[in-house]
Amino acid sequence: MDYHQPVLVQEVMVALDVKSGGRYIDATLGDGGHTLELLKRGGVVLGIDVNEGSINRARGRIQGAGLAGNFTYCRGNFKNIAELARDRGFNQVNGIVFDLGTSMTQLKDDRLGLNFTSEHELDMRLDDRDSVKAFDLINGLYENELAELFWEYGEEKMAKSFAREIVKARELERITTAKQLSDVAKKSFPGYEKGRLHPATRIFLALRIAVNNELENLKSALPRAGCLLVPGGRMAVISFHSLEDRIVKEFVQDTQPTKDGLLLTELTKKPIEPSNIELARNPSSRSAKMRVVVRAHRS
């Protein structure tokens, strides 16, 4: 099976200072790339993911490697990381990793509607138990609401223009597939970014973030995750765009000591980025940035 290639794997292991017998949480299990490396180093790991397909792939991969004995999994949203962890005996852990990138496996899955050529319904839900689909937003929001969404979540400078063209197109027929939406963007703005970027890129990003409530979930998850760390425990967060990285930065800067005298401090003066070797091997890692925090006693 062809698995998603995670980024900064060795850097995460170093950042978390992985020890044999230590307890760790992979808050974004995906295809299990980071978890597999944690297990190989003797870690006991809880893997969390909202997507059932991801969990099944990771389970099969880990079982195939003979490392299932120290692996626990659960389906759930990382915004509920505290409850999910405590219910499975991971109430105090040595390390946590968040990889906020979208799995290439999911991008290639036409059923999710995350790629530009998918003829399936414009869905974009990573958790199929959620109710709102990208289809609902594209066909249901007013023009000004679409423009606001594209600007706020996609940082699309031409948000108003894209929203106007989408509304024109849906007046002729509902936009039901990812390919229809990408075609509208491409036909409307053929010279977009001088051909360096597909016109629909930031539109798809904005929709995916909105449908899965990604930014709010991250804001909720980070402080709850921090409270699970033992003193000296570390948390690594890999972001892929400025909105995510801003949330992580603000979380670290705003962290206040808890009532038991513990607080989080950042270990990375500047974000850790992929090496030239990794960039050559995996070009999609180019926008990855990792920040690392440690929980320690207040001096």
Automatic annotation (TrEMBL):
UniProt function note: Specifically methylates the N4 position of cytidine in position 1402 (C1402) of 16S rRNA.
One function term, GO molecular function aspect: rRNA (cytosine-N4-)-methyltransferase activity
Origin superkingdom: Bacteria
Record's subcellular location: Cytoplasm
Broad enzyme group: transferase
Similarity-based family: Belongs to the methyltransferase superfamily. RsmH family.
GO cellular component terms attached to this protein's record: cytoplasm
Enzyme Commission identifier(s): 2.1.1.199
Catalytically driven reaction(s): cytidine(1402) in 16S rRNA + S-adenosyl-L-methionine = N(4)-methylcytidine(1402) in 16S rRNA + S-adenosyl-L-homocysteine + H(+)
Residues involved in S-adenosyl-L-methionine binding: G32, G33, H34, D49, F78, D99, Q106
Protein name: Ribosomal RNA small subunit methyltransferase H
Gene Ontology BP annotations: rRNA base methylation
Keywords, in A-Z order: Cytoplasm, Methyltransferase, rRNA processing, S-adenosyl-L-methionine, Transferase
Species whose genome carries this gene: candidate division WWE3 bacterium GW2011_GWC2_44_9
Annotated transmembrane regions: none
Main location class: cytoplasm
Entries under InterPro entries matching the protein: RsmH, SAM-dep_MeTrfase_MraW_recog, SAM-dependent_MTases_sf
Keyword Cytoplasm carried by entry: yes
Alphabetical list of Pfam families matching this protein: Methyltransf_5 (PF01795)
